[in-house]
Amino acid sequence: FCDHLPLYRQAEIYARSGLDIDRSQLASWLDHVAWLVKSLVERIGAHVMAGRAVHADDTPVPVLAPGAGKTKTGRLWVYLRDERPHAGPEPPAVLYRYTPDRKGEHCRAELANFTGWLHADGYAGFGKLYEIAGSRHTALPLHGPPRVAEVGCWSHVRRGFHDEWTRHKSSVAKEALERIGALFDIERPIAGAPPDIRRGVRQRAARPRIDELAEWFDAQLEKLPGKSDLARAIRYARSRWTALTRYLDDGRIEISNNAAENQIRPAALGRKNWLLCGSDAGGERAAAFYTLIRTARLNGVEPEAWLIDVVTRIGAHPINRLDELLPWNWQSPATHSVAA
Q1: 99 φψ region: left (φ > 0), alpha (ψ -120 to 50), beta (else)
Q2: What average pLDDT does range 177-193 have in this prediction?
Q3: Does the pLDDT of residue 332 top 90, yes or no?
């Protein structure tokens, strides 16, 4: 899962060294290890959902279906908590979940106990969370914040104009890209700064630009054919304006959902090598290992060293002290020896 090396390739590598291990045996070992560390996966998930802001995204996963040579499309979801961009004190963590389809009930069930800001794309499955809260495209309720507030992604907005510029070199698309790019330029110097500083900079530098952008978008819509791709790109942005501008008012949230997409990328790279999951159970197992390995990497922990130690110790480790084995709390065996 670190190096995107499927089991059949590992079996071939072992065979060249004179070690004959069938890949079904390797899969069985993976299954046992996944069972052994399941409690750590769930603790990482609880930590993610306890955050005030979560980034969410998903990607398709081919899965072997019953019947010779047939596949179906499962889904790998990612939920990320990362407070480092606003100097938050809590450790970063990422939770992966596999589901056999993309029904919205899956992400809503995962986020059932989450309260805060959700960075996500315009997927309708997330939309029902905001509709329940009354906050998708409207101002926040007068009687307090909603349970889940949508945070729009300016990178998604940008893509529509980028595609139009690539295809037709439209001057309108070019200006839109420049105006949106200026918003991202404002963000770079304040990455890692405390929330109050980030909010102050955004209010002074970004809000006037965004207000001007809204007026410019509306003016362009009056000139463009209603069914054109440019008009659709503008309507996409204007229909999500409340969610897209929410980041201006709180330094703890981001201008885009790129952080979640960065965590999806390893799974997408792996998919090119292992091609498909052998079953829904295999998808769930992959999600568990991605959770462990990517969370370790987010915390600067070498995944193999950590997992070797965890697998060795977890069977005898007191259940009420399992948090000691989480990547951000873990101490290497060398540290234990020095302490002893």
Answers
A1: beta
A2: 98
A3: no
User: Above 60 in pLDDT, residue 144?
Assistant: no
Can you tell me the mean pLDDT for 68-83? Answer: 90
Distance CA 340, CA 331 (A): 13
The dihedral sign for the CA sequence 100, 104, 158, 250: negative
Work out whether the CA dihedral 165, 166, 169, 174 comes out positive or negative: positive
What is the 3 state secondary structure string of the chain?
Answer: CCCCCCHHHHHHHHHHCCCCCCHHHHHHHHHHHHHHCHHHHHHHHHHHHCCCEEEEEEEEEEEECCCCCCEEEEEEEEEEECCHHHCCCCCCEEEEEEECCCCHHHHHHHCCCCCEEEECCCCHHHHHHHHHHCCCCCCCCCCCCCCEEEECCHHHHHHHHHHHHHHHCCHHHHHHHHHHHHHHHHHHHHCCCCHHHHHHHHHHHHHHHHHHHHHHHHHHHHHCCCCCHHHHHHHHHHCCHHHHHHHHHCCCCCCCCHHHHHHHHHHHHHHHHHCCECCHHHHHHHHHHHHHHHHHHHCCCCHHHHHHHHHHHHHHCCHHHHHHHCCCCCCCHHHHHHHC
Among 50-64, 78-92, 104-118, 265-279, the range scoring the smallest mean pLDDT is: 265-279
Provide the 10 A C-beta neighbour count for residue 49: 19
The model's confidence at residue 267, banded by pLDDT at 50, 70 and 90, is confident
Give the mean pLDDT of 198-211: 98
Which residues face 117 on adjacent strands? 53, 149
- Assign residue 152 a region (left: φ > 0; alpha: ψ between -120 and 50; beta: otherwise): beta
